[in-house]
Amino acid sequence: MKYAILVNEGPFNHQASDSAYQFAKSALQKGHEVLRVFFYYDGVLNGTKHSAPQADDRNIVKRWSELGKDYHLDLAVCVAAGLRRGITEEVVAPGFRITGLGQLVEAGIDADRTIVFGD
Amino acid sequence: MSVESDNSAEPKVKRFMYVNRKAPHGTVYALEVLEMVLISAMFEQDVHLTFLDDGVFQIKKGQNPSVLEMKDFSKTYRALDGYGIEKVFVEKESMEERGLSQDDLIIPVEIIGREELGALMESMDVVLSA
């Protein structure tokens, strides 16, 4: 199965980002394809390299970066939503890239299933 | 359900539905869904736009968010048909629960019942909600 994943919420504030990560990781481990993880709304905050959670907590941003590296996963941050929230090329974490909303629509067209994580 | 991959050169047209469930202000969702819808119009997909729950307030007449220093993007909904987005649905129950009727809305919509809307969602390839 080819999946596209949309993350609508910021890290730590909302479970959506954790659930999206767990889903993506499981799907990839089971041999499915994840065409793209697209970060929109406050979801773009998943891509900031300045996130520094306490040592006994999960590091959501780093976790995405590592998953991206391990599976050559496309971690796409919306440029328009990102600009509003200060997420620009200068601050994106390794493995993330800034791109347009068109990439979400394209992923929706190419994927067998598009899964939305958010309220 | 199996989905066969199509490698032909023909462009794929999928049934997209954008579901608006939140009030126009208070959170950013309504504005950013609208931005998503406008972009999607460039991809020549079969776009459906739905308003339900507090989302029906997004297209209510007489909004004056400037007093809150918020942008009045409700005008943009009126431009959607110019982008080829003409399939606009409002859930009947959501509208009635909030004491609204078609006369209160800034754009013409198709009003459909909850069950019918569920069936319509079921028929979509991609449902993006916020």
Short characterization:
The complex is a heterodimer of chains A (119) and B (130). Chain A is an alpha/beta fold and 119 residues long. In chain A, 34% of the residues lie in helices and 22% in strands.
Structural notes for this entry:
- The complex is a heterodimer of chains A (119) and B (130).
- With 119 residues, chain A is α/β, with parallel strands linked by helices.
- Chain A has a single domain, classed as Hypothetical Protein Ychn, Chain: A.
- Chain A is built from 4 helices and 5 strands, in the order βαβαβαβαβ.
- The longest helix of chain A is centred in the first third of the chain and has 14 residues, at 16-29.
- The two termini of chain A are 24 Å apart.
- The model of chain A has no long low-confidence stretch (mean pLDDT 98).
- With 130 residues, chain B is α/β, with parallel strands linked by helices.
- Chain B has a single domain (15-129), classed as Hypothetical Protein Ychn, Chain: A (3-Layer(aba) Sandwich), CATH 3.40.1260.
- In chain B, strands 4-3-2-1-5 form a 5-stranded parallel sheet.
- The two termini of chain B are 26 Å apart.
- Chain A binds chain B through residues 1-2, 6, 8, 40-42, 80-81, 100-102, 104-106, 108-110, 112, 114, 116, 118-119, and chain B through 3, 5, 12, 14, 16, 28-29, 32, 35-36, 39-40, 42-43, 45, 125-130.
Q: What is the CA–CA distance across the termini of chain A?
A: 24 Å
- Overall SS class of chain B: alpha/beta
Strand content range of chain A: 15-25%
What is the CATH topology of chain A? Hypothetical Protein Ychn, Chain: A
Give the terminus-to-terminus CA distance of chain B. Answer: 26 Å
User: Which residues of chain A form runs of ≥5 with pLDDT under 50?
Assistant: none
Q: What would the principal axes of the Cα set say about the shape of chain B?
A: globular
What is the overall silhouette of chain A?
A: globular
Average pLDDT of chain A works out at 98
Largest sheet of chain B: 5 strands, parallel
